[in-house]
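User: Reviewer 2 asked us to show a designed sequence for the structure in our supplementary figure. I'm pasting the structure tokens here. Could you produce the per-position amino acids so we can include them in the response letter?
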């Protein structure tokens, strides 16, 4: 099930807190199936970047409810399995520079993306253009 999972470990690498957000069930407003939106053309597969950010907000909030003390956090690491593209609007850097800790990230960043739905690794909607590009440069080996 596509999800965002967070673990908090101590200095002995023992898991002390764990939280998870399932995209489809915890964030139904994005209407994803398997964490993605698949077009009827069966080639266009996207996911909304705001969903990922809202999931991040929610997983951090759940960790907090479960007792994590963020003042003792030394580092945060992340890994994304969706391999998605995120397209920022011009001027989004100003929002990033002025984020407020008393407001959720998804509230602050929701207007910063130029694409509401971004292509992910499953998308094959540009296959014909990729093949044309290969031909124009002399084949896949030259490319």
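Assistant: Here is a per-position design you can include in the supplement:
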């Amino acid at each position: 099930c596509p999800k965002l999972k967070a673990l908090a470990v101590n200095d002995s690498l023992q898991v002390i807190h764990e939280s998870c957000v399932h995209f489809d069930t915890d964030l139904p407003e994005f209407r994803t199936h398997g964490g993605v939106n698949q077009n009827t053309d069966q080639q266009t597969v996207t996911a909304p970047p705001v969903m990922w950010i809202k999931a991040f907000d929610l997983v951090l909030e759940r960790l907090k409810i479960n007792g994590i003390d963020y003042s003792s956090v030394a580092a945060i690491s992340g890994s994304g399995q969706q391999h998605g593209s995120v397209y920022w609007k011009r001027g989004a850097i100003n929002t990033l520079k002025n984020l407020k800790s008393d407001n959720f990230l998804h509230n602050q960043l929701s207007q910063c993306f130029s694409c509401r739905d971004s292509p992910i690794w499953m998308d094959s909607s540009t296959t014909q253009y990729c093949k044309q590009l290969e031909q124009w440069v002399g084949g896949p080996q030259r490319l």
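For the response letter, you might also mention the following. The chain has a mean pLDDT of 92. Helices lie at 23-26, 49-65, 92-97, 105-109, 127-137.
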